[in-house]
Amino acid sequence: MALGEFELIYQYFSSYGAGAAVQLGVGDDCAVLSVPEGDQLVASVDTMVEGRHFTEAAFPEDVAFRSVAAAASDLAAMGARPLGMTLALTVPDADELWLHAFSEGVGRAVTAFDLPLVGGDTTRGALTISVQVFGAVPAGQALLRSGAGPGDRLCVSGFLGDAAAGLALEQGTSTFELSDIEYLSQRFYRPTPRLTLGQSLLGTATACIDISDGLLADVVHLAQASGVAVSIESSRVPLSPALRRLQNSEQALRWALTGGDDYELCFTLPSAAALPPHCTVIGKIEAGEGVDCDLALGAPPGFDHFA
Ligand code: ADP
Ligand code: MG
To answer: For residue 28, how far is its CA from the centre of ligand 1 (angstroms)?
Structure first.
């Protein structure tokens, strides 16, 4: 590497570390974060690999933003407040143009999610990005997958299927109205983790999961963890105007039900609880087991790296 490892770190990754919880950021053996009294620390890590989660054609800014957004979405799903993140970056070489663009994307995500970059690791190899996130949640209150009970309503935030449509757009397997292209591609590359919504659900939602593998697949996880049956009404699943404009409405619904990468929240609410803004009731929880959807899609739900 023309650029040394430490120069690279300091040049591109040492300026995003300011945050309320950060006592010490990049530069020492560990970062030091303060966890407010009465809170618990929640932690998660997510990895993206070139050729598997994104292609060589993807812009480095987008790869960076999406990697951080996907990791931050797990904090949202727990109802956690972001404290900070670390970044383990494996790059084939010290390509300064690429690193510059990548670090811009990191910076944008740091600002957007209030998630300071407090440390990491930098090595050489096939392009791989691991983002570990830390958050805080009032002790004992984290939103789990396991709390749903019979009588609860199944809800989702935002619109579903846009990211899968954005991916199909990138892969050239579907065509869209010109005016929808930018929106759908942004929904794939620049997802919005629902951090504020997640925190607002604390004490209200009985269970929560973020939709990363596809609605049906993630609802199966929630149903299994909670030991309940879930029924989904496909006609209630919220589709964006862009997906509603699609000629092939079955394809749109298939994306919404089985496409991954939306990073919306799926949660359960007791019948008396108010529905938050921009959220939709799509089904209900009953005693029993399994996930039932009125539409038989004949497609394997979700994505399994080892299936
Ligand atoms: P160590 O050898 O003690 O693990 P490193 O030499 O890997 O430390 O890293 C030096 C400092 O730079 C550490 O504070 C580490 O957290 C930080 N760091 C390394 N890579 C990154 C990165 N990609 N992004 C942010 N911080 C990083
Ligand atoms: Mg190291």
So the answer is: 8
